[in-house]
Structures are given as C-alpha cells and as structure tokens.
Amino acid sequence: MSSQVVVEAPGAHRIVPHEPREPGPGEALVAVHAVGVCGSDREVYRGNRPQGYVRYPLTPGHEWSGTVRAAGAGVPQALVGRRVVGEGFRNCQVCERCHAGETTLCGAGYEETGFTQPGAMAATLTLPARLLHVLPDDADLTAAALLEPAACVAAAALKAAARPGERVAVVGTGTLGMFAVQFLKAVSPAELLVVGARRDREALSRRFGATGYRLGDEPLPDRFDVVIEAAGSASAARTAAALLRRGGRLVLTGIPAPGADGLDPTDLVVRQLEVHTVFGAPPDAWAHAVRMFGAGLLDPLPLVTHELPLTGFPQAMELVGSGGPAVGKVLLRP
C-alpha cells in the first residue's frame, strides 16, 4: 500500500494511504523517486509560513524527482517513462508578468506545489505537464531531487552574468551556497572566494571549485566583480556588498528574518553597485539548472546527508531544524 504525508494543521501530521489522481487534460502523473526537505517545509509544519503562502490540510514537498507514469489528453505520450523534475509555481500563463517570463511573480496570485497544491511527499504527484523538465535517461534521480534549489541558484547565476576571468564570490555555505559555487565555477573565474560561518564547510567548497575560503568575521577583500549572497542571515547582504569592487554586481537570494541589516543606500550609489534579487526560479533558470546537471557540471549528490522513508517525516523536520554540522540535504523516499 502506497502512502503520503498530510499536515492537517501546524504541528499535526498523519501518514495516510495514497490514491494516485489520474491526469486530466494537460496533466501528467509522476511516480515520485525522492523529495527534498527544506526549511520552508518546516515552516509549513510549524505554522510560521506567512499567511497566503500555505493552505491546510496539505501534502508538502516541492523539491522532487520522478518518472512519468501517465499523460493526460493533449500531453505528448513520449513523456511516459521519462525521468523528470518539475517547477513548483502554478502560474496562470496569461498575465503580464507570465508573458515576460517572470512566472514566480504571476499576477493571478500565489499557487505552488507543496504549499497550496498537493506536493511530492507521496507515492505519486499529478501536475500540469508544462511544468516538467525532462532529464537524461541515465540521470541519477536521487541527485535530481535537489534541482529545485539548484534552479533558484541558476536564476541568481543568470542575473549575475559572470564572465570568464572575473573575480567572483559566494556568501553562504548551505545547499544554495554550494550550488552557487558550482554555477560560478562553470564560467571559469579568475578567483572564487567562499565566505561562510563554519570552517567545516571549507573542504566541500574547495571540492566544488572555490579557490579561497574565509569566515565572515575575518578581514575580507573588496575586489570582486560578482557576489552571490545565499546565506539569508541578518548581516549577509552587507557582507556580500562589502566584497564588491566599485561597479560590481550583487545578487541576493537569501530571505533573512525581518529586521536584517539593510544595504546602505549611500554606499550603493557612491560605489555604483548593481543589485539583483531572486524569488524562486522561472522556466529559463530551471532549463539552465537541468542543462548544467545533464552536462555533469552540477553535482548535487555530496550535499545529501540523510535519506528516510515517508514515515521519517517527523525526524526529517527535527534534522532540518537542528542546523547541525552533520546535516546537509535531507531526502524522503516514497
């Protein structure tokens, strides 16, 4: 008997039998291989996700990989049997922002798999087939479950537009930071500095291509052309801005708690810094992440530290909340 996780209300979850939902017109049914657990899933479970960005009762799970088992009317049957990942934002496709390709800013309101729509902490997931991205036939589906956070970083990398030979830096050494290192490494930078809060992340940073590693409280240089901030801490944006040369480019991806240190507008203007921000991943960023993964330029597997069955959901919530040095990416395996 297959099953699914249902969060009835904050702090209350059940493991219940799962019945696949047959795909309607334009939809596909995916057998879920693995689903990543993220801090926002813990927010759903604890009840501190902002109002309007969650709808209970809910099956969570927005980072996933799987294999297409059935395709509804109007969907190419050639998709059946293919390994896939999928976008989470259920954009309307007809508003001005969607037409501009900014699907994460859809004017029809927020709808996302695993938050307001049924997610992937279940044996199967049925969703619009247009959201699917097809992987190579030999793709490692365990690694591919991390392509959702990778796509968010891909959006940052596209906005950063780093060029070969530039000096680049990353602030933050979690999952997003480690993906940022890999995306920047792929453009052949002259220098790739990682700034973290823990010394134990240095080896992995260097494995992914970092040429230098500093702790945030150490003296930091100010010569970089591009900096991607992926820490989300209260001071991360200021640390990232301070690393830039005059005229440098900053991309912020972390979402700090309210009351974080803001960027100094005088500093931004006098140093003529270019600041970009990322909220989720539009389709071009997903395509970029999937292409990098297929080409072997993105290696998510070393970031996975725990794999649990769906019944391990409460343990996964504890692991993700612990922030322990031995906890990287936690996956659930339906």
If you had to describe this structure to a student in words, what would you say it looks like?
This protein is of the alpha/beta class and 334 residues long. It has two domains: 3-146 and 300-333, Medium-chain alcohol dehydrogenases, catalytic domain (Quinone Oxidoreductase, Chain A, domain 1), CATH 3.90.180; 153-277, Rossmann fold, CATH 3.40.50.720. 25% of the residues lie in helices and 27% in strands. The chain contains ten helices and 15 strands. It has helices spanning 39-46, 96-99, 141-144, 147-160, 175-185, 202-207, 236-242, 265-270, 283-294, 313-322, and strands at residues 3-9, 12-17, 27-37, 63-71, 83-86, 124-128, 132-134, 167-171, 191-196, 212-215, 224-229, 244-252, 274-277, 304-309, 329-333. Helix 4 crosses helix 5 (175-185) and helix 4 packs across helix 9. It is globular, with a radius of gyration of 20 Å. The relative contact order is 0.16. The model has no long low-confidence stretch (mean pLDDT 97).
Task: Summarize the helices and strands and which ones pair or pack.
Elements: E1 3-9, E2 12-17, E3 27-37, H1 39-46, E4 63-71, E5 83-86, H2 96-99, E6 124-128, E7 132-134, H3 141-144, H4 147-160, E8 167-171, H5 175-185, E9 191-196, H6 202-207, E10 212-215, E11 224-229, H7 236-242, E12 244-252, H8 265-270, E13 274-277, H9 283-294, E14 304-309, H10 313-322, E15 329-333
Parallel strand pairs: 8-9, 8-11, 9-10, 11-12, 12-13, 14-15
Antiparallel strand pairs: 1-2, 3-4, 3-6, 3-15, 4-5, 5-7
